[in-house]
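Thread: quick sanity check before group meeting

JM: Hey all, I'm pulling together slides for Thursday and realized we never actually wrote out the predicted structure for the chain we discussed last week. Dropping the sequence here so it's in one place. If anyone has concerns about the input, flag it before I start.
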Amino acid sequence: MVAVLLVLLAAAVSALGLVLLRKATQAEAARPTFSWELLWLLIRHRPLWAAGIATMFAEFGLHALALSFNTVSMVQLLVVMELPFTLILSQVILGGRLKVREWSAIATMALGVVVLLLTLSPHGGHSASVTGFQWALGLVVTIAAITIILMVARWARPVARTALSGIAAGMGAGLIAVVAKPVTAAVGHGLGAVVTTWQTWALIVVSIGAFLLLQNALQAGRLVASQPGITLANPLVAVIWGVAVFHEQVRSGWWLLGAGFGAALLFAGAALLSRSPLLAGHQEAPEVPEPCIPDTADHPRHGPAAFSEYSLVTAPDVRR
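JM (edit): ok, ran it. Output follows.
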């Protein structure tokens, strides 16, 4: 029960961070690729972005604490409740009102999560029993899958690009939970054990990569397109790792029919919820190509000065 409460609280905090980060970037035109210039602009001039990052750190602490109490599969299945929390907080921060469709979708998702947890009943497993080869193979396969998705997204149309970027970000978040699991186990053995565990240093690298993937998804386009992938790819990666690598046990046989029904409810609720006008965000900037800027002395094509001058002026502010 403690783990459940911690995960739900972490999901709510994470949802708050996502909404704050999206609000910080909503005045900017969507970009086909990750922009370091935009990231630097957010760091310097968007207090909401800094607040969103602070909530992400808080979410990480709650999430890690929950992982110390239960399996990766169970914890990450509950993380999908981040999507309903995102919608509810979008109503408050981005504007709008929850209607019957939104509440029905939230109830459907919650029911799907409950059915999945009751039918699969994930338990057992131990990250300490995983060999170095299994770790290496799992990491290579996961990172390769993320890389392929990003390559496909680079050449996809705007909506598909945003959706694929969200899936990549969700996979990165799921990988954080996977690598954090042995670190939480090492905490009980003291600071020395944490420092000497290689997963601690891998966690830092993976967290930075996942952060950049999330920023890429938020910059790619509307939250309505990226959020489902961010939310659903996370538990998918964690469950695969939990069962295939950590040897967590789940029910089989006829129980899988119930699990399939729960998964169907979860995806149906997420699909319905992802189409909510609240996630679409009437305040967000439309997805437009970058303006053609003449390469002159008065109007430099590249560099922070060019970015700050043109991206803020040319991206339509539809909040007016």
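AS: nice. Confidence is low (pLDDT under 50) at residues 281-293, 295-320. Residues 2-282 form one domain.
JM: adding both to the slides.
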